[in-house]
Amino acid sequence: ETGVTQTPRHLVMGMTNKKSLKCEQHLGHNAMYWYKQSAKKPLELMFVYNFKEQTENNSVPSRFSPECPNSSHLFLHLHTLQPEDSALYLCASSQLYNEQFFGPGTRLTVL
Amino acid sequence: AQKVTQAQTEISVVEKEDVTLDCVYETRDTTYYLFWYKQPPSGELVFLIRRNSFDEQNEISGRYSWNFQKSTSSFNFTITASQVVDSAVYFCALGYGGGADGLTFGKGTHLIIQP
């Protein structure tokens, strides 16, 4: 595997389900990010991790819970989501002070 | 607060035409970085360029060129002799710390190149 990978690529879940999105980077980077891309809205930064430490949380509802066990892996745990949370969730990584590289995203649909 | 505006929601041109995508940004910082990303239908954002606020030199890479003007807070992107494969959504973004902090994105411009 190369670059930034995300699994699953598509996810459909009910509002009472609990699921997790996974991101893995194979670039040796030390920072990882979660973004949300909704229709007709700019990409929204959700979380930032530098050296496994969360450095930014852009007022994201608590039903989204990130986890960064090491510098190569990033998770987004989902529970009790709402239909308006349906979106494309993008993971990115970067070497500190350099540009970000993005994964293909997970298309999430909340019923 | 920072903000990026891409006023062109959608542009449609015929193949081989030149096309310019506009980007205007707002920031109170003197040190910042500007980026362009391409998002093809597959969904993955592809990095195109990073420019820091102290470097106003225009850049050319093949058919792509970028015009950075601090006086007008703009960072425009031009594709020369467009091709169908250029069809995608293009995002302009603003960041700090070289982009290691989160980026602030514009809403994107959907570019359609017709054969």
Describe this structure in words.
The complex is a heterodimer of chains A (111) and B (115). Chain A has 111 residues and is mostly beta strands. Chain A has no helices and eleven strands. Chain A has strands at 4-7, 10-13, 18-25, 31-37, 44-50, 53-57, 64-70, 73-79, 87-94, 101-102, 106-110. In chain A, the strands form two sheets. In chain A, strands 2, 4, 5, 6, 9, 10 and 11 form a seven-stranded mixed beta sheet that branches. A four-stranded antiparallel beta sheet of chain A has the order 1-3-8-7, with no helix packed on it. In chain A, strand 5 and strand 6 (53-57) form a beta hairpin. With 115 residues, chain B is mainly β. In chain B, the strands form three sheets. In chain B, strands 2, 5, 6, 10, 11 and 12 form a six-stranded mixed beta sheet that branches. A four-stranded antiparallel beta sheet of chain B has the order 3-9-8-7, with no helix packed on it. Classes of the chains: A mainly beta (111), B mainly beta (115). Chain A binds chain B through residues 31, 33, 35, 40-43, 45, 48, 50, 55-56, 58, 88, 90, 92, 94-105, 107, and chain B through 4, 35, 37, 42-47, 50, 91, 93, 97-108.
